[in-house]
Design goal:
By secondary structure, the protein is mainly α. The chain contains 5 helices and no strands.
Protein backbone atom coordinates (compact mmCIF):
# COMPACT_ATOMS: atom_id res chain seq x y z
CA UNK A 1 0.00 0.00 0.00
CA UNK A 2 1.43 3.38 -1.00
CA UNK A 3 -0.72 5.55 1.27
CA UNK A 4 -1.80 8.02 -1.42
CA UNK A 5 -5.30 8.93 -2.53
CA UNK A 6 -6.81 7.27 -5.56
CA UNK A 7 -7.53 10.73 -6.97
CA UNK A 8 -3.80 11.55 -6.82
CA UNK A 9 -2.99 8.42 -8.81
CA UNK A 10 -5.72 9.22 -11.34
CA UNK A 11 -4.48 12.81 -11.68
CA UNK A 12 -0.93 11.63 -12.36
CA UNK A 13 -2.12 9.05 -14.88
CA UNK A 14 -4.08 11.75 -16.70
CA UNK A 15 -1.03 14.03 -16.69
CA UNK A 16 1.12 11.22 -18.11
CA UNK A 17 -1.41 10.46 -20.85
CA UNK A 18 -1.66 14.16 -21.73
CA UNK A 19 2.08 14.38 -22.40
CA UNK A 20 2.28 10.99 -24.15
CA UNK A 21 4.07 8.97 -21.46
CA UNK A 22 3.53 5.21 -21.28
CA UNK A 23 4.76 2.49 -18.97
CA UNK A 24 7.53 1.48 -18.82
CA UNK A 25 9.11 4.91 -18.84
CA UNK A 26 12.11 5.47 -21.12
CA UNK A 27 15.37 4.67 -19.30
CA UNK A 28 16.92 8.00 -20.25
CA UNK A 29 14.08 9.98 -18.62
CA UNK A 30 15.46 11.56 -15.44
CA UNK A 31 13.36 12.36 -12.39
CA UNK A 32 13.72 16.09 -13.09
CA UNK A 33 12.62 15.66 -16.71
CA UNK A 34 9.65 13.53 -15.61
CA UNK A 35 8.59 16.13 -13.05
CA UNK A 36 8.88 18.88 -15.65
CA UNK A 37 6.75 16.91 -18.14
CA UNK A 38 4.05 16.11 -15.59
CA UNK A 39 3.85 19.32 -13.60
CA UNK A 40 4.98 22.21 -15.76
CA UNK A 41 2.20 24.50 -16.89
CA UNK A 42 3.10 24.89 -20.54
CA UNK A 43 1.72 28.04 -22.06
CA UNK A 44 0.84 29.64 -18.72
CA UNK A 45 3.13 32.42 -17.58
CA UNK A 46 4.12 32.41 -13.94
CA UNK A 47 1.94 34.80 -11.95
CA UNK A 48 -1.08 34.51 -14.24
CA UNK A 49 -4.38 32.95 -13.24
CA UNK A 50 -5.63 29.82 -14.93
CA UNK A 51 -9.23 30.56 -13.93
CA UNK A 52 -11.33 33.66 -14.40
CA UNK A 53 -11.07 35.80 -11.29
CA UNK A 54 -14.31 37.16 -9.81
CA UNK A 55 -14.66 40.92 -9.40
CA UNK A 56 -14.11 40.99 -5.64
CA UNK A 57 -15.04 44.67 -5.27
CA UNK A 58 -18.45 44.07 -6.85
CA UNK A 59 -18.95 41.02 -4.66
CA UNK A 60 -18.27 43.05 -1.53
CA UNK A 61 -21.01 45.48 -2.55
CA UNK A 62 -23.45 42.68 -3.41
CA UNK A 63 -22.82 40.89 -0.10
CA UNK A 64 -24.07 43.93 1.79
CA UNK A 65 -27.51 43.57 0.23
CA UNK A 66 -30.20 41.73 2.21
CA UNK A 67 -30.59 38.07 1.31
CA UNK A 68 -27.41 37.88 -0.76
CA UNK A 69 -25.01 35.12 0.26
CA UNK A 70 -21.60 34.02 -0.92
CA UNK A 71 -23.18 30.79 -2.20
CA UNK A 72 -25.65 32.71 -4.39
CA UNK A 73 -22.86 34.86 -5.80
CA UNK A 74 -20.70 31.80 -6.43
CA UNK A 75 -23.56 30.08 -8.30
CA UNK A 76 -23.89 33.15 -10.53
CA UNK A 77 -20.12 33.20 -11.05
CA UNK A 78 -20.03 29.51 -12.01
CA UNK A 79 -22.99 30.00 -14.32
CA UNK A 80 -20.99 32.60 -16.20
CA UNK A 81 -17.65 30.76 -15.85
CA UNK A 82 -18.20 26.96 -15.75
CA UNK A 83 -14.44 26.37 -15.54
CA UNK A 84 -14.07 28.91 -12.71
CA UNK A 85 -13.19 28.35 -9.08
CA UNK A 86 -14.94 25.64 -7.07
CA UNK A 87 -16.91 26.86 -4.08
CA UNK A 88 -14.26 26.06 -1.46
CA UNK A 89 -11.54 27.91 -3.43
CA UNK A 90 -13.92 30.79 -4.05
CA UNK A 91 -14.63 31.13 -0.31
CA UNK A 92 -10.94 30.76 0.56
CA UNK A 93 -9.99 33.50 -1.91
CA UNK A 94 -12.64 35.79 -0.46
CA UNK A 95 -11.32 35.07 3.04
CA UNK A 96 -7.73 35.81 2.03
CA UNK A 97 -8.74 39.16 0.52
CA UNK A 98 -10.23 40.48 3.74
CA UNK A 99 -8.37 43.48 5.13
CA UNK A 100 -7.44 44.08 8.75
CA UNK A 101 -9.86 46.43 10.48
CA UNK A 102 -7.08 48.25 12.33
CA UNK A 103 -3.54 47.84 13.48
CA UNK A 104 -4.55 45.21 16.09
CA UNK A 105 -4.93 42.68 13.28
CA UNK A 106 -8.66 42.16 13.79
CA UNK A 107 -10.28 40.98 10.56
CA UNK A 108 -13.03 42.85 8.83
CA UNK A 109 -16.43 41.30 8.24
CA UNK A 110 -16.97 39.05 5.19
CA UNK A 111 -18.63 41.75 3.19
CA UNK A 112 -15.88 44.32 3.68
Amino acid sequence: MLGIARSTVQDNLQRAAAVGLNWPLPGELTDDALEHKLFSRNGVRQGTRRRTEPNWADLAVELKKPGVTLLILWEEYRGAHPDGYGYSRYVAAKFMLRKPRCCSGAWAAWGS
